[in-house]
Amino acid sequence: MRRYLHSGDIAFRFKQTKEDFFVEELPLREFAQKGKYVIAKVKKTEMTTWDAVATLSKYLNLQSGDIGYAGLKDKHATTIQYFSFDARYISALKKFRHKNLEILDLVKDTKSIRMGDLSANRFVINLYEMDNIKTGRVEKIAKKILKEGLANYFGYQRFGRDKDALDQAREMLAGERFIKDTKVRNFLISVYQSHLFNEWLKKRIELSSDGKFKLLRGDVYMDEREKLFTPKEPPLADFLQKKVLPTGLLCGRGAFRARFEAREIEKEFDDEYLPYKGYRRAAIVFPKEFGVTLHAKKEMTTLRFALPKGAYATSFVEALRGQEIEPVS
Q1: What is the third-level CATH fold of 150-285?
Q2: Which of 9, 51, 74, 131 is flagged as catalytic?
Q3: pTM of the prediction?
Q4: In the prediction, which pLDDT does 329 show?
């Protein structure tokens, strides 16, 4: 069971559907309006990003690897994201039609889109069985989260529908299961790394109190340019001003490890022999652009907010409810 810096313990109904979960990518840069690439702004429903790539690659008769995208978006949602193609496909893209995939805009650019090329994601989410009192409580807890941060857990989407994915990952790493498909193998590795990160974050939240994430000597921080560093003392003032973020380990080779007191906890959740690339991930993130609207007749409250890339909106919803969300079946 996860732990949260702020838990609303608010009873409401939430189910991720295309009608109640909307996400839009916010691009990392302004597009140049010229160049050898074309950027497609795409709206999709009931399709994963991989499904969309497969559909577009088949239509254009090109390899899926020739299509660029910045992030993976949920299937059970209405999503807007950006894809890049060689500019010679612009005429064909203008004629593209699909019931679950709509091209909203096409613009040329000098660069293709790569994974991570987005500044944030903007969300609109509906909660049900809500009233004026519950909406007020949601707003109160959300304001605390905006000020002091959200535990940046990987959401259930990271782990897939199959609840035994973690067992499969462990069997694969132990040599007890052979996975030929590279995409599946990489997915299972990410499940394993993400599980360890979530368990580490839970431990760190348990060490924190009064809704404030406890910084430890030896923590690794990420600055506004995503540069990693370990200061001599915890930079509390910069953290409170949201200039730096404490990070957690996604274990693997080449990853920046914590030191001193922070490392003592981190090593409990570190597989130092994992033969795959490691990373670090922000442990705490700060939502922005928060707004809330109650639709009393529908007993529905609409949340609007933005999160940094890689953060899960469902983690925000979980913190408000004080309970984990089950995967969509």
Answers
A1: Pseudouridine synthase (3.30.2340)
A2: 74
A3: 0.91
A4: 52
